[in-house]
Amino acid sequence: MTTGRRADAPTPSPTETAACRLLDLLAADSPAEDLALEPARSRADGAAAAEVARIEETTETALTVRRVLDQYRRREAELVALFDTAGDLARLRDLDAVLRAIVRRARTLLGADVAYLTLNDPVAQDTFMRVTEGSVSAAFQQLRLGMGEGLGGLVAQTARPYASTDYHADRRYRHTGTIDDGVSEEGLRGILGVPLRLGAEVIGVLFAADRSPREFTPDAIALLGSLADHAAVAIDSARRLGETRTALARLESATARARAHGEALHQASDAHDRLSKLVLRGAGSDEVAAEIAALLGGGVALHDTDGSELARVGTDPVAPSPADLDASRTGGRAVRSGDVWTCAVLAGAEPLGSIVLTGRADLPEADRRLFERAALVTAMLLLIRRSVAETEDRVRGELLDDLLAGPGSSAHRDDGSLTLRARRLGLDLARPHAVAVLDCAPALRTRLAAENARTARRLGGLAGTRHGAAVLLVPCDDPGTLARGLAADLGRTLGAPVTVGAAGPGTAPAHHAALHAEAVRCLTALHSLGRTGSGADVADLGFVGVLLGDRADIGPYVDRVLGPVLAYDAERGTELVRTLSAYHEHGSSLSRAKDALHVHVNTVVQRLDRVARLLGPDWNSPDSALEIHLALRLHRLSHGSPGH
């Protein structure tokens, strides 16, 4: 700073001149070296020793001012940098970006060769390298430091800053081979580490390091500590923001799922209402199956408990898999096999049937629940049907009881009333009917009664129980075939032997009581003969059936046993029947038979050969011989022939 001087002004002293020059240098922001030259310049100008001493004091004061200004300027720059850092960190949202920005700013502010940051691992109880800036060593970048190991481990453990002018020569730290090797490979000497703290918790360490020895000043330590404080808050904010984002994402996902679930429930409820209204207004299985198929976009088949098909829409015949059906009953959910879904139809724990869905390889949860709701509605349909069937079965059972009560009962005082009641149930008693009596193990008789009722509905007849046994009255002109078919079919359904005795046909209400009695005797005979699990009528039992029967059916029995022989004699005038009778009456002796017939023994042999060709090669077996002998006697008695 140069000032003008009046002509009459006194000449300034060397000290004043030097002070003015020092002020000019400070104002020009000259370096400290320029200020330090002022005493030498005054001596060169010839200033006295006392003046030079005062100039040296003034220069020292100017240098002190210079140092203070430098400190303020540096502090201002550091504060600006910290504010800039805080602003930068506040704008960051990604944790990795936050950590990289912290390390980069630390390296810049301290003018360090390398800056890096480690984070504590509470599970492993150590601290690991998270981000580096300026590092060239892969081994250094992958270091993990145990608590108390090395400078960084000590900072993480004690939550205090530590600085080392030359790390390898510093014995204050617990050196390990792994850490020392990593630091050596990176070439670091001077290292400063400060803790990243959140309250009392240390979450990591922030470092600045040089590849040459360095004495870190308190200002540098304070600056890195301030940055570490900002960094800890930023890390915590980034973590919390990440957690918040995750929570929001989960909340959005849960909201979407809840919304989808609500929509699915609404759709399922609407579908349930539609199906329920169908059932309540009296729709049949076909209509319900069609509605289910339309709702789910596939083929549907409904089945009864025995696997019989009740309805089918949009699919080929398909039976429910026993394994899938059992799994559905146990778990209460629809079960998938390929593109076929099976759901048990249950009333509580009681199986009522099943529903099968085809053509849907994938069934989302909403559709699956809709399918399961359809099974509930189907259960309601089947329960209503069963209730109606049980009522109808009760009415049919009462009619059957009256028909089997016999002509002497009050129910048979008016056959016309029985005929009218039967006609209302769709039965024409003028048609030939057969009566079957069914038996099985006592534990299965309830199931047998239910299956018997189902069979009666299928065949258009009546079913009930009488004296503890299941009874069936159905239109039929071949009771033997009926009995055998019932024994086979119901035995398979129950998985146990079912024995059936049948009688018929009868064409009037007055006949049915007698048919029932005969069927009971036939059933008893089957058990007595060891034929439990089979079915037969009296004709199938041969002479036993003749003995059991109480109707005039001797002629049909004789025709069944001897018909071909009788016809042969009638056409040709031969005596095969007379020869056969003599043969049996004389103990199957050829010689005694030829004497009784007054013919040659060869004639007897020839006639019996003809009988064998007519009746079959086993005509003379014990069972057949007994049948033939009885038929011959009945034939002789029915024709009034004399005995032998």
The rounded distance between the terminal residues' Cα atoms is: 175 Å
Shape: rod-shaped
Query: How much helicity do the residues have?
Result: 55-70%
Strand order of the largest sheet: 3-2-1-6-5-4
- Mind describing the biggest β-sheet? 6 strands, antiparallel
Structural class: alpha+beta
How many strand segments?
16
What does this molecule look like?
The protein is an alpha+beta fold. The chain is 57% helix and 16% strand. A 6-stranded antiparallel β-sheet has the order 3-2-1-6-5-4. It has a 5-stranded antiparallel β-sheet with strand order 8-7-11-10-9. It has a 5-stranded mixed β-sheet with strand order 13-14-12-15-16, with helices on both faces. Helix 9 (218-280) runs parallel beside helix 12 (365-404) and helix 20 (590-597) packs across helix 21. The longest helix has 63 residues, at 218-280. The radius of gyration is 57 Å and the shape is rod-shaped. The N and C termini lie far apart (175 Å). The model is unreliable at 640-644 (pLDDT under 50).
Main attributes?
5-stranded antiparallel β-sheet, 22 helices, 6-stranded antiparallel β-sheet, alpha+beta, rod-shaped, 644 residues, disordered C terminus, 57% helix
Secondary structure blueprint with pairings:
Layout: H1 14-27, H2 32-36, H3 38-44, H4 49-91, H5 95-110, E1 114-121, E2 126-133, H6 138-141, E3 144-146, H7 150-158, E4 162-164, H8 177-186, E5 190-198, E6 201-210, H9 218-280, H10 285-296, E7 299-304, E8 309-313, H11 322-331, E9 335-337, E10 340-347, E11 350-358, H12 365-404, H13 415-424, E12 433-439, H14 445-459, E13 462-466, E14 469-475, H15 479-494, E15 499-506, H16 509-528, E16 535-537, H17 543-548, H18 554-572, H19 576-585, H20 590-597, H21 601-615, H22 622-638
Parallel strand pairs: 15-16
Antiparallel strand pairs: 1-2, 1-6, 2-3, 4-5, 5-6, 7-8, 7-11, 9-10, 10-11, 12-14, 12-15, 13-14
